[in-house]
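Final report, Chapter 2: Outcomes

The project's central promise was a pipeline that accepts a single protein chain and returns its three-dimensional structure in a standardized token representation, suitable for archiving and comparison. That pipeline is now operational. To close this chapter, we reproduce one record exactly as it appears in the project archive, with the input sequence first and the structure output second.
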Amino acid sequence: MTEVTPPEFSRPIALRQITGQPLVLEATDEERADLTRRFAITSVDRLVARVALDRQGDRVGVTGTLEADIVQPCAVSGEDFPVAIVEDIALRFVPEGSIHPSLQEDEEIEIELEAEDLDEIEYAGEKFDLGEAIAQSLALAIDPYAEGPNAEEARKKAGIELDDAPRGPLAEALKGLGSK
């Protein structure tokens, strides 16, 4: 039997535990270190989510805010720089098989999603992992192409210009045609 490793920031919530009281989920030092490795960034210095859970039968709406302080490498220079992330959270946990129950696994059909269909997460049994959903929300909020304060200087050193002027042999040929 294969042992399943729990997610780095696991916070299982049992349906029967939902009271309507706001929750604050904060990652420990170890959890932040594990998330740092998972997201391949320099560090996760802070991760806090403040959420409210609204249970409607076996569906649970989650709204709130995710706040994180991370350090990541600049996409241009590679130098580390700090990034503050503040994201709204709007998720809905639904029982397994309820997102599109009419579809069979091997069926291939195109589905158009409406706004209310997005950010639904299926769960099995009587619990869902709110911490993993928060971690995934953080992963989506990290800009993999973020540029640090020295990005422009690194571009200049490398001889990279970002103006809108076309470059290359075709651009040179077309430039010559414009003056005739």
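Archive annotation: Helices lie at 29-39, 130-141, 151-158, 169-178.
This record, like all others produced under the grant, will remain available to the consortium after the project formally closes.
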